[in-house]
Design brief:
By secondary structure, this protein is of the alpha/beta class. It is built from twelve helices and 15 strands.
């Protein structure tokens, strides 16, 4: 089997299933477990720190771990950095079978910090029987020194190991999400996957195939020249029992809306009024599949009679929030207590600024849109209320990045053309 610690809603599991491999996920969060169940993923709901590791010995081929990042993330208090010496000590102790977690946990400023040492407890139990064949771990960039400590221990056990920082946008994820990665193998040289995308498209050369331009939010969400980020409303439980919006461009939603009779054909492009709405029957229109999009140049922007607007995604309401245009990848998506602060904002062109044309009000991003920007399939069955869904999405590994990381160690061929996760 493939053992997946802190499995979340299934960021690693989605590509594993596409490769024809099933994993067993250990996860504590109730709603992440319900999402995994709805997606047909095997899950043990448990506290990873309390579950016995020895029961997996003798049956584990691959090992995956993405410990919770809240203690280390720049979005939080980052007490994990204060606790880092204690976490290093726990890893060193667990690597030789000494369980000092209770004592070290009492000294931690953030009790979640020590969860980053839990993978070593499992790896020590598995290594006693010569397992696993390969290891893949992911965390926020500040955890890289800890991954290097893991790497030194794994090398002493006979693994080839690579550690480093990778940007998800370099692998076709419409988000510039940087993460510390550890890859290890007993059977082959460990190395990072070759990037498939770049900030600027690179042509094919004598040294190999070129790289495509980073996938923009517009391409990922299917927003074309006549689309705008206005929720299209369908029947179903929204806040206070009202309608629940789904995003423009999400696959299957157009067909579903037509069947329910809630979809109306878009007006002529010259009559489009960029006015935000959150109720009533909206319209949505995709510009075609991603493969039909222009190979070069930015995605089309939204237009109206009076002016030209460029939509952008603002990561939160702080003054230093990351703001990215729709023709760029999103910044790193993080939610938690900021779940409802990630919004679409309209920015007018120069002509509109001169006319002091008022811009449409900000529109909150939907959970489905956030899932697509994490490279989950558009119809992924997120469970829970909006806050619970956003929390799952923000903490998940982007499935498309996970696919690139796992493919070489599973002996599976993988190209961007035959593995469109959001199809």
């Amino acid at each position: 089997m493939v053992l997946d610690l802190f499995a979340g809603p299934g960021g690693w599991s989605v590509p594993l299933h596409r490769f024809g491999i099933r994993d067993i996920g250990l996860e504590w969060d109730e709603w992440a477990c319900k999402t995994r169940a709805a997606a047909g993923l095997l899950t043990i709901r448990t506290d990873v720190a309390m579950y016995p590791a020895w029961i997996f010995a003798g049956r584990t081929r691959g090992f995956i771990a993405s410990p919770p990042c809240q203690a280390w993330s720049m979005a939080g208090k980052r007490l994990g950095l204060v606790d880092q010496p204690l976490v290093h000590q726990a890893v060193a102790d667990l690597a030789v079978g000494l369980d000092s977690r209770e004592k070290l946990l009492a000294a931690c400023r953030d009790e979640r910090s020590l969860l980053a040492a839990e993978p070593m407890r499992y790896l020590h139990a598995l290594n006693s029987v010569g397992e696993p064949d390969w290891v893949a771990m992911e965390e926020v960039p500040d955890v890289l020194p800890l991954w290097k400590q893991y790497a030194a221990i794994l090398r002493s056990w006979g693994f080839s190991v690579w550690t480093g920082i990778l940007n998800a946008a370099d692998y076709g994820v419409p988000q510039t999400r940087r993460r510390a990665i550890l890859l290890a193998s007993r059977l082959r040289a460990a190395e990072p996957p070759a990037p498939t995308h770049a900030r600027v498209a690179e042509p094919e050369s004598l040294f190999g195939p070129g790289r495509a331009r980073w996938v923009s939010m517009a391409e990922a969400l299917g927003w074309g020249a006549t689309d705008r980020p206005v929720p299209t409303v369908c029947a179903g439980g929204g806040p206070g029992g009202g309608p629940e919006p789904f995003p423009s461009g999400a696959r299957k939603t157009l067909t579903d809306a037509r069947e329910r009779g809630t979809w109306a054909a878009p007006p002529p492009a010259g009559d489009i009024i960029l006015k935000p709405q959150t109720r009533g029957a909206g319209w949505t229109s995709r510009h075609g599949t991603r493969g039909d999009s222009p190979a070069s140049g930015p995605a089309p922007t939204c237009t109206s009679k009076a002016t030209r607007w460029t939509w952008a995604l603002r990561s939160n309401n702080q003054t230093n929030a990351t703001i990215r245009s729709i023709d760029e990848p999103a910044g790193t998506l993080f939610f938690g207590h900021r779940a409802n602060e990630c919004t679409w904002v309209a920015r007018p062109a120069a002509a509109a600024r001169e006319q002091e044309t008022p811009s449409p009000a900000p529109i909150r991003i939907t959970a489905a849109e956030a899932g697509i920007l994490q490279s989950f399939p558009a119809d992924y069955p997120w469970q829970g209320n909006k806050g619970q869904q956003f929390s799952q999405i923000g903490n998940a590994v982007p499935p498309r990045l996970a696919a690139h990381l796992l493919a070489p160690y599973l002996d599976r061929a993988f190209t961007p053309d035959d593995f469109t996760l959001a199809a």
